[in-house]
Amino acid sequence: MASSSPLVIWRFTDTKPGHENQSLGLVEALSEQVDIEVYDLEALPFKEAIRLFLKKSLPLQDRLLPSLIIGAGHATHLSVLAAKRSAGGRSVILMKPSLPTFMFDHCIVPEHDGLAAGRHVITSIGVLNRIRPSTQLDQDRGLILIGGPSAHYDWHDDAMLERIRMIVERDSRHWLLTTSRRTPDSFVDKLKYETLDNLDICFAAATGPDWIAEQLQCSGRVWISEDSVSMVYEALTSGADCGLLPVQRKRDNRVSAGIDKLVEKGRLTTFDEWFRTGGLKANDAPLNEAQRVADLLLKYV
Predict the structure, then answer these.
(1) Which of 38, 78, 85, 180 has its CA 20 to 30 A from that of 102?
(2) Residue 97 domain-assigned?
(3) Residue 198, number of CB atoms within 10 A of its CB
(4) Same domain, 52 and 169
């Protein structure tokens, strides 16, 4: 690619926020290295994607031919393949695909999904995200990120409240706590009665889409409830020292195995360890997986 030409990217989306976060994280990381021109495209319906793949005739609609075609989410797989067959470029899927990996040029797969790195697979520590390591972390500011019950985790209001109180009472810095759309109403109601002097609460309904990202850029210490896996990786990327608030697992699985690996590597401090030692492990090597993957992909275009 000539230095004066932008890197053309077709980004297919299924509009799901988590998948949007992953593909935008990669696109933004690429933009920090080279000039880019991005076309955001909605994933085609299944039958239409099959038809256009077989006909090799995806409409270009005045779009420049792509160097990279990026998709996140199962619904984008066939659209990415149809676009590659029609317009060329390298296909990039941000997940363990539902189709054989050899059908794509690059599959960016979290290492906890169990695929080995190889010709078509680049493994990442967690899913990609839009956070970048911060140079403005304030060690006097703490952030507590609360999730809720999920397919993998149960939830107990009183146990979580007790741990939050212990953290805030033992650590005198200023703390800001936020909830998520999964946080039970019963827990939200109980939080409304918390009156700790060094704790402010901002409920999820009062936050915008970039609010957590903004807080992660300035909070030197972050506690995350274990069920909030994406936020764990985002906090580790920000450069903050990170603690893990335990949530009862329904069963061990690939997601919890990924969390356990972060603890084993010393990236996360468990609540029990913090209770014994009074401190969190320093985040001396923040994650920056979107940038690392972007640098690898640029070697191919």
Answers:
(1) 38
(2) yes
(3) 13
(4) no
